[in-house]
Every structure is written in structure tokens, then in C-alpha cells.
Design brief:
Pfam families: DUF1775. The protein has 225 residues and is mainly beta. The protein is built from 2 helices and 15 strands. Strands 7-8-5-11-12-14 form a 6-stranded mixed sheet, with no helix packed on it. The protein has a 4-stranded antiparallel sheet with strand order 2-4-9-6. Bound molecules: 2-acetamido-2-deoxy-beta-D-glucopyranose (6 copies). The site of one 2-acetamido-2-deoxy-beta-D-glucopyranose has 3 residues, from strand 8.
Length: 225
Amino acid sequence: MQFTKTTVAACLLAAAASVQGHATIQPNAAVPGSNYYGAVRNPHGCAGSPTNNVTLLIPDNVTSVKPKSNFGPWTVSTTLRPLVPPQTAESGAVINTTIASITWTAKDGAHVLDTEYYDFEFSGKLPDGKDGDVVYFDIIQNCENGASYLWGQRPGQNVTDNTPNRTISSAPKVTLFKNGTSIKADPNAGQSGTQSAGGSSDATTVRGVLAGVGASIFAAAVYFL
Ligand SMILES: *[C@@H]1O[C@H](CO)[C@@H](O)[C@H](O)[C@H]1NC(C)=O
Ligand SMILES: *[C@@H]1O[C@H](CO)[C@@H](O)[C@H](O)[C@H]1NC(C)=O
Ligand SMILES: *[C@@H]1O[C@H](CO)[C@@H](O)[C@H](O)[C@H]1NC(C)=O
Ligand SMILES: *[C@@H]1O[C@H](CO)[C@@H](O)[C@H](O)[C@H]1NC(C)=O
Ligand SMILES: *[C@@H]1O[C@H](CO)[C@@H](O)[C@H](O)[C@H]1NC(C)=O
Ligand SMILES: *[C@@H]1O[C@H](CO)[C@@H](O)[C@H](O)[C@H]1NC(C)=O
């Protein structure tokens, strides 16, 4: 990785709030230790320019990762890292590597327009944890005009990355809840349509985003129980 992180006291989430949609992982709440099925969702390109490729960096405590089989206009490639300690599959085979990153690259000039969004699907095993524990992912999004995003900023950390024309913004996250979701069913959820990512606690943030994005996301979170 080309960037470093320095701890800072300030909570940077507030600064990143609700200017434009952020890259997210959907659903953004899940059961600790579960087999998760979700997607990288890129809501826009780079200042009008379409997205050509997207890389998802898998955190150390997410294993058994697979990108969804893809017959569409994207090629999918992965990098591996050692799995420590190795695990034994049901077949008896010893598994000593796991996926470290997935890159989806547009084929033949295909891309996601700035006016469209796309879900890049994958699955993986989430770590155990208690309600409110957060699993952060980093995403690098490259656009046709040479600009890019690093969706890698975490609360209390200061990410620096000297790549030219790169915007650093908040890292997408999945928050762990034993019931698989952070909110109770709310018939009015989603009415306002605003996506406010402000707030100082992860639970609050997820609640706000979920409430803003709406009941369909809530339904997805429940579906993945
Ligand atoms: C995994 O096991 C294979 C077969 O024993 C070995 O060749 C390879 O070096 C191992 N890789 C790692 C990362 O340990
Ligand atoms: C996952 O690993 C990261 C990096 O070690 C750690 O900060 C985080 O707390 C872990 N999350 C869970 C839910 O275990
Ligand atoms: C990703 O997209 C950028 C911008 O178009 C391009 O420069 C880069 O070569 C692409 N990477 C791959 C692996 O295709
Ligand atoms: C960065 O953006 C500027 C202005 O759009 C452009 O002239 C330059 O070529 C870009 N640099 C890279 C590395 O894409
Ligand atoms: C992050 O680091 C940069 C460069 O050192 C600095 O200018 C900036 O003020 C820092 N941001 C915060 C929130 O500390
Ligand atoms: C799931 O659990 C969290 C944490 O205990 C709670 O805040 C939330 O309301 C629960 N959601 C539902 C749908 O019960």
C-alpha cells in the first residue's frame, strides 16, 4: 500500500459528512462471525468522469473471500496474502493463503458513468465481535480522467497518499450486530432521502445512513441474517 496512517485526535467523520455520496459496503450491518454477502457501492465517478476500475482491500480479519462470478463488462482479479494460522478445509486440504484485494476493471472501454452507480459483489467471513464493533475496508476508485479516490479515512486517523489527483475520503465499514442490523423497523425510514454521515459514534452513523438510505437497505440487512 502506498499510503500511511497517522493517528490524530480529531474525528474526521464530521468533516466528511453529506457533501456527496460516499463509497460504501452494502449491507453495512452484519452478524459477527457470519458469512457475509455484500457489495462495494460506488455512487459516483470523479468530478463527472466515469469509473474505470475499483480495488477493494480486504482487512486482515475478513477471510474466505470470493468475488462474485462476473460475466459482465468487468474483469475481476485478486491478490493473495498468507493466512496465519492456516486453516483446514472440509475436504482436509490445508488453506494457507486468503484474498488480500479484489480489483474490478472495465473491459473494452466499459465503465460506470458518473450519473450511475454500480455494486461490485463479494462474499467473505466476518470476524467475531460484539455489538457495535466495526470492520473497515479500504477502496481505491480510478476514473477515466486520471483522478481517483482512496476511501480509506478512519475516525481518529490521518491518511496521507501522494498519488496525484487523489481524493481521500471516509472508509466504508460494516458494523457488527448480533441481530444483523443497527435499526428497528421504522415505517418512516427513507422518507427524507438525505444521507448524513455525521456523528461521533459508529452506531449513530450507521443508524443515520441506514435511516437516510431507507427501508430497502434495512430489508437487505435483514435478508442477510
Ligand atoms: C502454502 O502451502 C504450499 C504447499 O505446501 C507452499 O508451497 C506455499 O509456500 C505455502 N504458502 C504460504 C504463504 O505459506
Ligand atoms: C479487525 O482487525 C482490525 C485490524 O487489526 C482491528 O482494528 C479491528 O478491531 C478488527 N475488528 C474486529 C471486529 O475484530
Ligand atoms: C485503472 O484506471 C486508471 C484510470 O483510467 C488507469 O490509469 C489504470 O491503468 C487502470 N488500472 C487497471 C489495472 O486497469
Ligand atoms: C491531474 O489533473 C490535472 C487537471 O485535471 C491534469 O492536468 C493532470 O494530467 C492530472 N494528473 C494525473 C496524474 O492524472
Ligand atoms: C492531517 O495531516 C495533514 C498533514 O500533516 C495536516 O495538514 C492536517 O491538519 C491533519 N489533519 C488533522 C485533522 O489532523
Ligand atoms: C439490533 O441490536 C442493536 C444493538 O443492540 C439495536 O440498537 C437495534 O435496535 C437492534 N435492531 C433490531 C431490529 O432489533
